[in-house]
Amino acid sequence: MRKYVIMGVQGSGKGTQATLLAADLDLTHISVGDIFRWHVKQHTKLGAQVRRLVAAGELVGDDLVEEVVGERLRQHDWNYGFVIDGFPRNRRQAEFFLESYDIDGVIHLDLPDDEVRRRVLARRLCSRCGMDYNLIAHRPEVEGRCDVCGGELVTRADDTPEALARRLRDHHDKIDPVLELFRRKEYVTTVDARGDKASIQQTIRDRLGLPPYTAPAPAA
């Protein structure tokens, strides 16, 4: 059983790399962001709370994140292990996590703040179906329109320069001490997140001593 934590600033590709790692190794990908997005889409009470925070450019509170992650991990459907992104969010959570789970490694995706700004401010969202786009790496065929449903592409409510600046400050204030704690335990593998997703995935596997990454064959 393997248990990994993947960490990095917003826009560093945590979800993409966690998905690639989980698919090959039969791990369960636990994404805090995906959990909250599900609640927003299902219009739950928690989802309404998250929507208000996002609209204000704020992060979901640490206590709420801890509660949601604890509930998810208690389901114990991760027979071969898990890779978790979006948690832990502070030193207290990291200490609890180390006490509760015998983790195999922490993958830190390192991305400079100026590259974060470039990537995040290029994101767009379909106002109709919710499909994600990025004007740098995933442009729609018709400018401003979703390839899937034709809906208008809009900027996310929290993707403004001001909101991003607040999130970056919050990230560094909270996550840097978490990484320092993990480094003292010699768990952290830092990977440059500026390459393409396949090369980043291969670097992660090389550092962790895992089987090589094989990209899926293109559809016929």
UniProtKB/TrEMBL annotation:
Residues 123-158 form the Adenylate kinase active site lid domain. Residues 31-60 are annotated as: NMP. Keywords: ATP-binding, Cytoplasm, Kinase, Metal-binding, Nucleotide biosynthesis, Nucleotide-binding, Transferase, Zinc. Pathway: Purine metabolism; AMP biosynthesis via salvage pathway; AMP from ADP: step 1/1. It comes from the Bacteria. HAMAP family: Adenylate_kinase_Adk (MF_00235). This is Adenylate kinase. The lineage of its organism: Bacteria, Bacillati, Actinomycetota, Actinomycetes, Streptosporangiales.
